[in-house]
Amino acid sequence: MAKQPMLKFVKIERDMPVKRTAEERRGDFHEIYAEYADAKAKEQSSRCSQCGVPYCQSHCPLHNNIPDWLRLTAEGRLQEAYAISQATNTFPEICGRICPQDRLCEGNCVIEQSGHGTVTIGAVEKYITDTAWDEGWVEDITPQADRPEKIAVIGAGPGGLAAADVLRRAGCQVTVYDRYDRAGGLLTYGIPGFKLEKDIVMRRVEQLKAGGVEFVMNCDVDAAIFAKIRSENDAIIIATGVYKSRDLELQGSEAGGIVKAIDYLTASNRVGFGDSVAEYDSGVLNASGKKVVVIGGGDTAMDCVRTAIRQGAESVKCLYRRDKANMPGSQRETQNAEEEGVIFEWLSAPKGFVTEPGEGGAKVTGVQVQKMRLGAPDATGRQSPEIIEGADYVEEADLVVKALGFEPEELPKLWDQPELAVTRWGTIKAEFTTGATEMPGVYAIGDIVRGASLVVWAIRDGRDCAAAVLEGFDSKAAVAAE
Prior knowledge:
Layout: H1 22-25, H2 38-45, H3 55-58, H4 66-74, H5 78-88, H6 92-98, H7 110-113, H8 121-135, E1 150-154, H9 158-169, E2 173-177, H10 186-189, H11 198-210, E3 214-216, H12 223-232, E4 235-238, E5 244-245, E6 258-260, H13 261-273, H14 278-281, E7 291-295, H15 299-310, E8 315-319, H16 331-340, E9 343-345, E10 348-356, E11 363-377, E12 383-387, E13 393-396, E14 399-402, E15 406-407, H17 411-414, E16 442-444, H18 447-450, H19 455-481
Parallel strand pairs: 1-2, 1-4, 2-3, 4-16, 6-14, 7-8, 7-14, 8-9
Antiparallel strand pairs: 5-15, 10-11, 11-12, 11-13
Helix pairs in contact: 2-4, 4-5, 5-8, 6-8, 9-19, 13-15, 15-16
């Protein structure tokens, strides 16, 4: 009888890949975790309890078949594990690195609930696909036959790239338009290299290019370009994401030294590519030697504080108006930031900014902070922060980064498409299952529909939308053939 390869969670403890020391990782933008060795990946995969109802799978937006590829990894059948992983996820090596597993698959692992520590699903997922690339198991995009249909994808972020991948594999002619000079969206310019090294993203972009997907970069779509794209294609998929930063209208908020998170992170990532960035070189978007205050508690704020540490900031503090238990960002990322030297000021909110005259205008010197306490729950069930009167203080700052989230741009106005319906939040009104909008042949996916969300949801939307587009084409062809 074959030896049972699974259910070893009682005997084997959870063990993440080795994390580089905080001192070491503060000095560069490389990923902080080492790769699993083959034996360790097998060992950790063998802890899976092979649940009859796998909550890890049901809480994954892509419904990845996690128990099966864990079992195959434990048995040493890694190429088969990769095939199952790739079947439901266009970019498993990216999700393995940046998904908040503690809130999704790992956070719902049954053995975690029983006190044994969750299976390290994300680390194994990353290991499987990294190995697949190394071993040459990742197949080129080679459609069996070309189809005549032409699809334009506006936005080269994870949702747009996932849709392009599915459509091109089916043989469609796909063109991706993007405002930046490199594809990848926030994967490229928003997420720092210590979470996702850029060669991982560029490798997938090159795979799409080699497979026949055309990219039109440095293309900021306006009304004329949208009209031209629509006239030349059988379908359009809008995957622009949400890039309009939420702002603070407080006293002194226009002073120099107060910057948006997206500008700050983009500059840092461009420098990582070797680009010359004037605002970084001048110090405007560079934390070196400065007292940095980041305002916000989401994953973008965590990216900013950890970037500032690596740029050599004198000090880095994060202001968040609720407590640690109620912050929206990943607890894992918060722990990493604390290890690296970030100081979190919980229950603290900005009231205004302290400035002084300087060359070219006022310059920020501090943040007026008001202390908070948690009161009654708001409409979402979270406790609403309340101001503690008389507890204000000033936090010194040379650089303030606003990481308050993102809102959608006014696409109907920008593109002169009033019939492109939007919700009261400004997101495009589209079917969640297909991405179909109220405009014939026009679809929308990802954050421009959901609002600021997770990369894994954008991938899910891109795959679902591409399948719906293909089904629509096939239905029309069937009707025409009758």
